[in-house]
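Regression test case RT-17, inverse folding.

Input:
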């Protein structure tokens, strides 16, 4: 007991006790903090799903059913994933104003926070493509534009036009213009294949190739200058030829008639 009492009165005793207390505190935090964070994440996700279910019941269930099982007015959403929700609702296509061959893009009626909640609820119905992170669709490599152009002309230009200006399809359907479309939504469209578009999962088209296509589309529709002047919608030789025949040839005919009329008047006088 005397030895223990002597050690307590040692000048370094308080420092040793403090170090032991700090070590114990750090150990306890390391042991319990991750579990608390995981529990908090689960609680936040559960809350998002609950809120998304409420929004779904009001704005989507009349067509897709209360549990997303689908109906005669809308397909099942089981397994479509959060990316499909973010694309369809983020571009204003859903909720649809009326049924038809093509659901057009329009101003969306939900905030991004509400879209995330809807996406969380739909994702809980079954596994599917998830909303991509920014680094998945944002490129900083200039070479991606040319590589993306090759991929776009091979896989996308048949419907969307070589310059991404869109085009008509059969039975009243169309491939929309890609001008002004958010990079994330272009990536999600390739992931999910909305409406008439085929899907390009990572097994068919790797993530890097989708990123390159996004880089090409963004450059072509937003950044690329047109040294030839008026683009005429970048719709190709048919539009340019029609413009030439109607306005170019039409102007020449009008000038010829004017010259002929004034020549006749001059001879009579």
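Golden output:
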């Amino acid at each position: 007991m005397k030895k223990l009492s002597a050690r307590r009165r040692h000048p370094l005793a308080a420092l040793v006790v403090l170090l032991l207390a700090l070590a114990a505190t750090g150990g306890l935090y390391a042991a319990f903090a991750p579990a608390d964070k995981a529990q908090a994440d689960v609680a936040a996700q559960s809350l998002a799903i609950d809120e998304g279910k409420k929004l779904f019941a009001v704005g989507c269930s009349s067509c897709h059913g209360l549990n997303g099982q689908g109906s005669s007015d809308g397909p099942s959403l089981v397994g479509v994933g959060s990316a499909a929700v973010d694309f369809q609702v983020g571009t204003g296509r859903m909720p649809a104003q009326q049924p038809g061959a093509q659901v057009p893009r329009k101003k969306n009626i939900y905030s991004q926070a509400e879209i995330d909640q809807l996406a969380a609820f739909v994702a809980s119905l079954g596994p599917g493509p998830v909303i991509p992170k920014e680094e998945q669709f944002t490129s900083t490599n200039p070479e991606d534009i040319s590589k993306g152009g090759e991929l776009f002309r091979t896989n996308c230009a048949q419907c969307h036009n070589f310059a991404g200006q869109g085009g008509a399809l059969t039975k009243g359907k169309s491939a929309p213009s890609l001008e002004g479309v958010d990079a994330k939504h272009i990536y999600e469209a390739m992931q999910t294949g909305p409406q008439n578009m085929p899907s390009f999962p990572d097994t068919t088209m790797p993530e890097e190739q989708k990123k390159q296509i996004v880089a090409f589309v963004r450059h072509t529709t937003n950044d690329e200058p047109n040294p030839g002047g008026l683009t005429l919608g970048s719709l190709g030789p048919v539009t340019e030829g029609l413009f030439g025949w109607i306005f170019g040839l039409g102007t020449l005919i009008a000038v010829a008639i004017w010259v002929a009329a004034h020549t006749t008047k001059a001879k009579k006088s």
